[in-house]
Design a protein that fits this description.
Blueprint: E1 2-10, E2 18-26, E3 43-46, E4 59-69, E5 80-89, H1 101-106, E6 113-124, E7 129-130, H2 161-173, E8 178-183, E9 189-197, H3 199-220, E10 222-225, E11 240-245, H4 247-252, H5 256-268, H6 270-275, E12 299-301, E13 308-310, H7 312-315, E14 322-324, H8 333-355
Parallel strand pairs: 1-5, 12-13
Antiparallel strand pairs: 1-2, 3-4, 4-5, 6-7, 6-9, 6-10, 6-11, 8-9, 11-14, 13-14
Helix pairs in contact: 2-3, 3-8, 5-8
The structure holds magnesium ion.
Magnesium ion (MG) is lined by residues 117, 119, 184, 191.
Length: 363
């Protein structure tokens, strides 16, 4: 069977970018009509063009780590299409120093389940301004109505719905764990949610979903902005909130004591977490626009001005989870989920040592 493979990887810029190139191969599909990872060959690329190597020693290796159906490719009777997410390795087979996935994959197995709320802004590629934002005939910058009616809006209070509908279908067709989508507080700012899965799988799906939306935007004359604060002033920034729960939280429900141990750990490690929450996040975490100031750690029930929110419904008996509101839209989820997981796991270990018990929730 001929298959078209989009090899996708992360480059070495401080703000990581997606890179991809295409290859045709003869590979047998498995019983689920997809590919087994072991059948997909490794490939090489020019690391000197991605800030990952010097030109006199430029070859780097792409190691396939996740495969998804490629919803961007129109149905072709001659081949099936797949997206192949890759880790970058040195030629000796060791993880390249820009390979942030490797460390997350090596983390001790645990039972933490995450979901992500990925926000972003649709820009018009001609004006490089949010889609549908007005411009005067003289080209002066003018602004739409102040934000108040755009969140989950309809009709004239949202822009880009045709694009969003297509994108949602594509996430489903790719087989990702998509949970939903909504229009956000700033006009042309949107969100989609992925989960509830383990850290590595979620981070992989986030990068694959970012690849799909960036590729789709090319056909629509749009640009996807992951900027934490795309428009200065009285406009909401874009985050990538992570919700998490441990087995104990899911099985046992709300437990104030348990929550406080985890929250103390998150507070202790706050500035380590902040380091991985995205470039330019200081422009977003100002204490305004549903954020907590970057310099402090605050938690609260139903509090959207907190760093970590405990949903009010959890306290009343619904499934217990917490929401980390600090990460920005442009974060590297491998880094965020590694630092967050470490703190949660150490919270468990502390709790269990206090009780003199075996670690029960972390396998
Ligand atoms: Mg949101």
């Amino acid at each position: 069977m001929t298959v078209k493979l989009d090899y996708v990887w992360l480059d070495g810029h401080t703000q990581k970018n997606l890179r991809s190139k295409i290859r045709f191969e003869e590979i047998k599909l498995n019983s689920k009509e997809t590919l087994n990872l072991k059948d997909i060959p490794r490939w090489s690329f020019d690391g000197s063009s991605t800030q990952q190597a010097s030109s006199d020693n430029s070859d780097l290796i792409l190691k396939p780590v996740k495969v998804a159906k490629n919803p961007l490719s129109s149905k072709n009777e001659n081949y099936d299409s797949f997206i192949v997410l890759c880790e970058v390795l040195d030629t000796d087979g060791k993880p390249h120093n820009t390979n942030t996935r490797h460390a997350l994959g090596k983390l001790k197995k645990n039972d933490i389940i995450f979901s992500a709320e990925q926000e972003y802004t649709l820009l018009d590629a001609r004006t490089v301004r949010p889609l549908g934002w007005p411009k005067s005939p003289e080209g002066e910058t003018i602004f739409p109505l102040p934000q108040a009616r755009y969140y989950c809006g309809t009709g004239d209070f949202v822009k880009g719905r045709n694009f969003i509908d297509k994108y949602m279908n594509m996430l489903v067709d790719a087989g990702l764990n998509v949970r939903g989508s909504n229009a956000e507080v700033m006009l042309s700012q949107w969100e989609y949610q992925l989960g509830n899965i383990n850290a590595v799988d979620l981070a992989d799906e986030l990068w694959i979903s970012r690849y799909i939306i960036e590729r789709l935007s090319e056909y629509f004359g749009m640009i996807i902005s992951w900027e934490p604060k795309p428009i200065p002033g009285d406009w909401n920034g874009s985050g990538c909130h992570f919700n998490f729960s441990t087995k104990k939280m899911r099985d046992g429900g709300y437990d104030e004591k348990y929550a406080s141990v985890i929250l103390d750990k998150l507070e202790e490690d706050h500035f380590t977490h902040i380091r991985y929450c995205g470039l330019g996040n200081e422009n977003r975490l100002t204490g305004e626009h549903e954020t907590c100031h970057m310099s402090e750690f605050k938690h609260g029930v139903g509090d959207r001005s907190a760093s970590v929110r405990i949903p009010a419904a959890c306290v009343k008996g619904d499934n217990f989870y917490m929401e980390d509101r600090r990460p920005a839209a442009n974060c590297d989820p491998y880094e965020v989920l590694l630092s967050l997981s470490k703190s949660i796991v150490s919270g468990h270990e502390e709790l269990n040592s206090l009780k003199g018990q075996e670690v029960e929730v972390v396998a």
